[in-house]
Automatic annotation (TrEMBL):
Coiled coil: none annotated. Residues 23-277 form the EAL domain. It comes from the Bacteria. This is Diguanylate cyclase (GGDEF)-like protein.
Amino acid sequence: AKESGRNNYKFYNTNMEKNTYEKLSLERDLRHAIERDELLLYYQPQIELSSGTIVGVETLTRWNHPKLGFIPPSEFIPIAEYSRLIVPIGKWILYTACKQNKAWQDAGLPKVHVAVNLSIHQFQNSEIIQTVAHILQETGLEPQYLELEITESIAMQDVEKVILTLQGLYALGVKISIDDFGTGYSSLNYLKNFPIQRLKIDKSFLDDIVINPKERAIVGAIIIMAHSLNLRVTAEGVETMEQVALLQACNCDEIQGYIYSRPIPTHECAELLAERRVY
Ligand code: C2E
Ligand code: CA
Ligand code: CA
Ligand code: CA
């Protein structure tokens, strides 16, 4: 028993070392991902229900690792965050998304906003306002075509500082939305103090709206509240026409989800925009 115990320990220890090694090597690889052209921006269309057309696209980043293949953001964003690589990587993502949107507009495609996810570390970086201003200036994208997605977790930070940052971004003319709305453990108090323009209702609230009247009631109430605060509402992760119909009945403004499109690479997104399709 003692022997096998020792063996178990050894086995466990080896695994642990392997995991740590993998983490470290991923972090090391991530350090070079930008210069090696391994990070790719995908875009997911956002459809306005009243017009049936694309009004925006959300940038979702993929890492094409030379040995491991595509690594999802759920795996590499946390590594980027704890290593603080998220600041330079996030800056590159912001720049690339703005530059791409301007290029689409210059090519005569319909003007849409590009939504970019902003990690809390990027938001808390003292240079974030200058960074965004500089990127807009450098790419020539008009500010109303950039939307920044932040999560409710910012509401749990130093509120006065957060408001100053949000006001600075708002003054640039960019839009700010609350991502994954309803999933953070924060009070709703921030809604009245923050200069934001949109709530994105998380997929978890929408999965069962067709079969569960309570979920429907919650989503309906969120939309009514948002509208009375002059906020627009995007429903995320919508997969069925039944969900679309219910969201339409609740006056939801925009929908993003596999029902219309998965996140797609740049050239496919350009083709979609060129189609000017009405859904
Ligand atoms: P998120 O911002 O909430 O993005 C929505 C996620 O839901 C995306 O996953 C998207 O592909 C997925 N999704 C969209 N529609 C559907 C649907 O109909 N059904 C299902 N099952 N899923 C759907 P993805 O691309 O894996 O990204 C996961 C998360 O990683 C994002 O969640 C975001 O928090 C983070 N992320 C992605 N790109 C970036 C980035 O460039 N910067 C930062 N800071 N975070 C990012
Ligand atoms: Ca998002
Ligand atoms: Ca989300
Ligand atoms: Ca999410």
